[in-house]
Amino acid sequence: MPGFPAPTPADFLAGAASEWVISSTLQMHSLDSTSSHEAQTNRRELRRSRRRKRREQLGLMPSPFQPPKNLGSLLKSWKFWVSLTALICGASGAIAVASLLLLPASPNCKGIFWPTASASLRIYCAQEMAEKNTVEDLLAAIALVNALPAEHPLRPEINRNIENWSKQLLDLVESTFQEGKLDEALALARKIPDNVPAYRLVDERIKQWQAIWSKAEEIYKKAETELQRQNWPEVFRQAVQLLDIGNKYWETTKYQELINNLQAAREDGAKLNKAETLAEQGGLENLLEAIKQLSSIGEKSYLYKEAQKLILQFSRQMMDLAQEKLDKRDLEGALSILRKIPDNAKLKEEIKDFTELAKAQAQTWQGTVASLEAAIAAAQKITPNRPLYAKAQELINDWQQSIKELAYLERARNLASSGTISDLKAAISQAELITKSNPRWQEAQEEIARWRSQIEIQEDRPYLDKAILLARSDTPEALQAAINEASRIGSGRALYAEAQEKIEEWIQKLQIQEDRPYLDTAIQLAMSGEPDALQAAIREASKIGRERALYEEAQEQIQEWNRRLQEREDRPYLIQAQNLKNEGRLSEAIAMAQKILPGRALYQEAQDMIQSWQQEVRARQNIDQAYRYASSGTPEMLASAIRIANQVPFESELRAEADTVIDSWSQQILALARERAASNLQEAINIAQKIPTYASAYSAAQRDIQAWQRLLNPPRISSPALTNL
């Protein structure tokens, strides 16, 4: 245009370079100039810079460079082109340096207005957040980029980032899950948007956690159930399954908790078992000790409920013991037991009612109408809302009935006080009006039995007195008459036992009087001692029957006479056997003694002799066998002969002969050993060792053996010269 100098090529190059630098700078500050406030500012700056450059190029503004007047000559000058080339190179370097020095600063993500921010800026800031690798920052990064529409061109990149960040987030939340915070882990995982493809990872991880947690809880609950059943092996087996469950919290904390619970439950189980054993043994002290054991089981124990149940059960057993004391009319003993029932049995109100009823029941022991009325008044203080109200009403009904029927018993006692048979019978009739369901029934029955006994005594005493009077003459006829009179007292009557005792006494006297002549005659016959007389005596004494008074005495005499008879019959066999033995005919002597059969008087004596003679026979056999062995003269056979000869018993008559041959044969063995020592010391030792300890040559043989062993194994003599070496 006229008036404006034309721009030179350098001006165009410099302007282009400047515009490129500005454009690059703005591009580094914003990835999308249409949607960012900062990009708009940069765009305005760019437009202003471009207008300024165009003004400079058109000459609208003063130019720092003045064009030469002769452009043609300048273009033909080589100096111009050299200068221009240098200028361009310098400008290019300057532009490069400026590009390096003027790098844009990172965007301030915290100060960005996100509704107008570009997708690239969102991705950039989201990546920056995700690099912090925290749950909050990862969730913020996902939310920041997931706000972009699904059809956005960068959506594949966004989904890829979201999937990576979701994995990072799940890995972080995994530690929360491993710490046992399932709900917190689930809540954090579910913060990942469910409208992104990566949500399948979240869903899979959540299902995995829930499956692990559900299985662990199932194992733990089953273990707790087995703890209550005291099935310790099964509890431990369930606990071991937690070690591979896939969660550190269950594998460590809950596993150890279960093991601790198992140990505590086993200790409490032992207390339960001990308590039950004590309770089974019965008795107040055992029940108290059982309750003490159960009371030491704490509320947190799995066996606490069972312990409390047993405490209540054993406490009620104590109340039963108190009732037993009360039934025996021991009020203080009953109250003492009640005071020992512990408070944790939760029977305080029931014990209070029991105490009141016990005191009321004690008043009834006086057996008067006034005492019964006082007891009823005391029991009526127990109101319907009290634990033992039903029992109180039952006792009141019994006592009210007792008042009515006590009148029957009192009238009966008044009638019986006279002691006459008619009044006693009337008293019995009155007492029988008391029904069996009444507490006084047993007392009435005792009175009735006593009164009936008095009646029977009055009725039967005359028979017994008459019988005793008859028996005083002590004749058979009188004794039989006394027996007949006393037998009129029937079985079950008050004087029956006394009458039977007298009858037994009189029967014995009568039998003795009847049987004494037989026994006396038998004794007289047996005095001569002759076999025929003894046989006659036995026949006479056998006339006394088994159930008679003199039967035992007669049998003793018969046994004695039988013994004397058997001795007379069998003694010749023993004498003849002894004679045969003296003649050395032992076999015949034994056969003769064996003629005395078992059960005979001399049988044991004969057996003793037979045993002694048989021993002698065996001893002779041993001696003869030993002689046969020794006849060979070899060391082995001589040693065998010695062993056989030594089997002769020490009490045998042949023992002296056995000792003699043992000594002789042992000397022969020693002589053979000494003879062999001249040629073979080891064989000599072997021969000498055959001599037994009980042989006379044993000591000499041992000395020779030691000497021969020293010759075979001379002691090593150490040389001083060799020692010094």
Topology diagram in text:
Blueprint: H1 9-29, H2 37-58, H3 71-76, H4 78-101, H5 119-130, H6 135-146, H7 155-178, H8 182-189, H9 199-229, H10 232-242, H11 248-281, H12 284-295, H13 304-327, H14 331-340, H15 348-363, H16 369-379, H17 389-416, H18 421-431, H19 441-471, H20 476-486, H21 496-526, H22 531-541, H23 551-582, H24 586-593, H25 603-630, H26 635-645, H27 655-677, H28 681-688, H29 698-712, H30 720-724
Quaternary organisation: single chain
What's the count of strands?
Answer: 0
Shape: flat
Count of individual helical segments: 30
Can you give the mean pLDDT? 78
What order do the SSEs take from the amino end to the carboxyl end, as H and E? HHHHHHHHHHHHHHHHHHHHHHHHHHHHHH
Question: Percent of residues in beta strands?
Answer: under 5%
Low-confidence stretches: 1-44, 53-69, 94-105, 719-725
> What structural category do the secondary elements indicate?
mainly alpha
**Roughly how many Å apart are the termini?**
131 Å
Percentage of helical residues? over 70%
Radius of gyration: 65 Å
Structural write-up:
The protein is built from 30 helices and no strands. The chain has helices at residues 9-29, 37-58, 71-76, 78-101, 119-130, 135-146, 155-178, 182-189, 199-229, 232-242, 248-281, 284-295, 304-327, 331-340, 348-363, 369-379, 389-416, 421-431, 441-471, 476-486, 496-526, 531-541, 551-582, 586-593, 603-630, 635-645, 655-677, 681-688, 698-712, 720-724. The protein has 725 residues and is mostly helical. Residues 1-44, 53-69, 94-105 and 719-725 have low confidence and may be disordered. It is flat and about 190 Å long.
